[in-house]
Design brief:
Chain lengths: ~500, ~250
């Protein structure tokens, strides 16, 4: 039995919040098995890198610099996620109307909401760092375990900062533009972080060589003023008692202060975001009034308008495709010899998988997150034809970009360009098939960012697929485009079989 | 072309539907004549929405048959859907589209003739006092405005069978009046209308015939007078008759 908590108190509301967040997870046996396998794999990597790390024997200053840098990087990426989580919560409302109309003090509601977000944020960081922390604790020193303290503290600081940022944005820009700016900022920070990460990897050579080069740079920089600050953060992360104490103080103190002092500002924020959607947005009136188009064109136009008119959604969708672009940077300057004996920059090879990811994101919006399933469900059009239109709407933009890129490459690279095009078509097809079957999430298209929640297996499958497609593009360019034909035929067969035997369920269709 | 006019507008036979172990509809028979205005009443969770969703093809029945103007909805779904319009209890619109763009989309789906759609859109939007908002995104609309825009979408393709799930819930008196007038006008023009409602006054004033569903079964059916008789009353409002019937039939 849970202890009886005083209704309306902070722990009571926190328990409610945690219970809600655990209930939304879908924990099938496959999910659990998949998670265990993933965790074991990550631990293998963690232990191996701990061995490598132990051999390097870094001087403390360099170690602190690198740790601090990693900490800053984590914080930057977390700003993106924290902003998204805060914006999602505030603007899609959920239970905010209920909470805010209750006699609970904002000094209870605000910290609880933020703590819920903080737990999600920390969990996201720890899932990927825990294997390294554990590996280090096992192989190098038990003191690595301090990561379980420092990383959540960093998340807390990031969250406090993001919250203040959102408050400021709303005050300066008004609720509606603030939302867009916050989401676009989050997208840019996320993409920028990923790019930066790849830029660090751009220097050639194996990973050992790269680490050594990084170490040398670190030693050179170790005494500049900025580096001193970063080193201090690194020292805190490494568990140096003084620095750690100050970090904890800043994190917890700052959070408490924000919760205490911005209660009223939070109320105003929540009140204004609740009304953010009500100011009418007009579109140019057409003198002739309504224009009737054919069915397919109507569907295409509707899907594209819905994305185009939503700048936040548009950035999120585009950033999906961009996520893999950094791979191209890591290959920067590297070339392969194509079948025609030309030298092609390997960066082009990420075009097919990124466009596949883009098509996947679009099909999720068009098929899974349809806003008016009842309208489509009662339209006098066979379900398959409608689905075909939706797939076209989702896949066409990717196909156009792919074709443009291939045409650009065609004169110089001949068959290699054909190989990239064919791989791209395969990528688009596979991602369309995969993503149109995702389960709908609460909140429809506004919950775009949450579509992998409880769906991590799909996410992993997609990343693996992207990697495989990259490999196939390599093969098609280096050996022959013919290599793409068997998988393409297989995919088409699969598509037909899948559509014939089990069409995807439309959202909200009981 | 089948001769639609000779058959009932809606004919339901032994219809059943379960959600998992929960039986929502347990064998409903229903026959509604062309031009009839029919009201479906029943307590919350009785199975009204489930029944109607099967009629419009959003849910697949577990057993039983449905035909609309003689067209079997399961074997000839597309043909049946051409005759039907469905207005769900929560208006489903696209936030980023304007009402006019929404109507364009509906017209595209139903393949309506352009001139006709244009005239009809203007007529409907003007009639529902949305014409001045025709170029505003629906995201800023109140619930009543959304409901009206959705209703315009349902009417623009001239359905012969109009099915509305709680169309008047949450509307203010003036908007409710507009909607009721529009429905009566359609009914007089020969459109068959089925609606569910929890507002007894609506059922009393609008509909020709009432069916009461409880626990997934049709427990009583008829005009208000017929229902009074079934309840063993000589007078009384529909509310009293309804509560009587639900109490006695539900217990049986
Ligand atoms: N998607 C669903 N999954 C499981 N059970 C459902 C689902 N939809 C409805 N039910 C159940 O089926 C029964 C009938 O529901 P239905 O929505 O048809 O009732 P209703 O008569 O329309 O009620 P209301 O007047 O509240 O709208 C209820 O017991 C409900 O709990
Ligand atoms: Mg209902």
């Amino acid at each position: 039995m849970l202890p009886a908590l005083r209704p309306g108190s902070l722990p009571w509301l926190l328990r409610h919040e945690l219970r809600l967040s655990f209930r939304t997870k879908r924990n099938g046996p496959w999910m659990i098995a998949g998670s265990i396998v993933l965790l074991l794999m990550l631990h293998g990597i963690g232990i191996m890198s701990a061995f490598g790390f132990a051999k390097m024997d870094l001087p403390t200053s360099a170690l602190h610099l690198m740790l601090g840098g990693a900490g800053l990087f984590t914080m930057a990426m977390n700003i993106a996620i924290a902003l998204q989580l805060l914006v999602n919560g505030l603007y899609t409302r959920g239970d905010y109307d209920l909470l805010l109309s209750s006699p609970l003090s904002p000094r209870v509601i605000l910290p609880v909401r933020l703590m819920g977000t903080w737990i999600a944020l920390s969990a996201g960081v720890l899932i990927f760092t825990a294997p390294f922390i554990n590996g280090g604790a096992l192989i190098v020193s038990w003191r690595w375990l301090v990561g379980y303290l420092t990383l959540p503290t960093l998340s807390l600081i990031t969250l406090s900062f993001s919250f203040l940022l959102l408050l400021g944005l709303v005050r300066v820009l008004g609720p509606r533009r603030a939302r867009t700016v916050a989401q676009v900022t989050a997208g840019i920070v996320g993409i920028g972080g990923a790019l930066a990460w790849q830029l660090m990897n751009m220097k050639g050579g194996g990973s050992g060589e790269r680490t050594r080069a990084g170490m040398e740079t670190a030693l050179k920089l170790a005494d500049t003023p900025i580096a001193l600050a970063v080193r201090w953060l690194g020292a805190a992360m490494a568990g140096a008692p003084g620095a750690l104490a100050i970090l904890l103080l800043v994190g917890i103190g700052g959070f408490t202060a924000i919760c205490w002092f911005s209660g009223p500002a939070f109320l105003r924020l929540a009140a204004s975001t609740g009304a953010a959607d009500t100011s009418p947005r007009r579109h140019k009136s057409r003198p002739m009034g309504l224009r009737v188009r054919g069915r397919t064109l109507s569907v295409l136009l509707k899907e594209w308008r819905l994305i185009w008119r939503d700048p936040a959604l548009l950035t999120q969708v585009l950033s999906i495709g961009l996520m893999i672009v950094p791979m191209g940077f890591s290959l920067h300057g590297k070339t392969i010899t194509t079948t025609g004996n030309a030298l092609l920059y390997m960066g082009w090879l990420v075009v097919p998988p990124s466009l596949g990811l883009l098509a996947g994101a679009m099909v999720w919006l068009a098929v899974v997150a349809e806003d008016a399933p009842d309208l489509l469900g009662t339209a006098p059009v066979p379900r398959m034809q409608l689905l075909g239109d939706q797939l076209l709407a989702a896949g066409l933009p990717s196909l156009v970009i792919l074709s443009a890129v291939s045409l650009y490459l065609l004169p110089a690279y001949g068959m290699a360009a054909v190989g990239i095009w064919l791989t791209g078509v395969l990528a688009i097809l596979l991602f369309l098939l995969l993503d149109m079957r995702q389960a709908p999430v609460e909140g429809g298209r506004k919950a775009f960012q949450k579509r992998y929640q409880g769906n991590y297996l799909t996410l992993m499958a997609e990343l693996l697929l992207a990697l495989a497609l990259y490999g196939l593009a390599f093969l098609a360019v280096w050996a022959s485009p013919v290599w793409t034909i068997p998988p393409l035929l297989l995919a088409i067969g699969l598509a037909v079989a899948a559509l014939l035997t089990q069409p995807p369920r439309a959202a909200k269709l009981g | 072309m089948p001769d639609h006019s000779a058959s009932p507008a809606l004919e339901i036979h032994a219809l059943r539907k379960s959600y998992g172990a929960k039986e929502a509809v347990k064998g409903i028979d229903l026959s509604i004549q062309p031009g009839e205005f029919y009201g479906l009443l029943g307590p919350n969770g009785a199975g009204k929405t489930t029944t109607l969703k099967m009629v419009v093809g959003l849910l697949r029945p577990d057993a039983g048959s449905i035909s609309v103007f003689g067209v079997d909805t399961q074997s000839r779904g597309v043909e049946a859907k051409r005759l039907i319009a469905w207005l769900p209890d929560e208006p489903m619109l696209y936030d980023k589209l304007t009402p006019l763009e929404y109507l364009e989309f509906v017209a595209g789906l139903w393949g309506i003739d352009a001139t006709h759609a244009r005239e009809e859109a203007e007529k409907l939007l003007t009639r529902l006092e949305l014409w001045d908002h025709r170029d505003e995104r629906c995201e800023g609309f109140s619930r009543g405005m959304k409901q009206k825009a959705a209703l315009a979408g349902a009417l623009i393709h001239d359905p012969r069978l109009l099915i509305l799930d709680e169309p008047l819930t949450g509307l203010d008196a003036a908007i409710a009046r507009q909607v009721k007038d529009l429905l009566l006008e359609r009914a007089r023009a020969g459109c068959t209308i089925i609606l569910t409602t929890h507002i007894m006054e609506v059922a009393e004033r609008l509909v020709d015939r009432i069916g009461i569903i409880q626990h997934g079964q049709l427990v009583a059916e008829g005009t208000l007078d017929a229902l009074r008789q079934q309840a063993g009353r000589s007078g009384g409002t529909l509310e009293e008759v309804f509560l009587d019937l639900v109490a006695t039939r539900g217990a049986a």
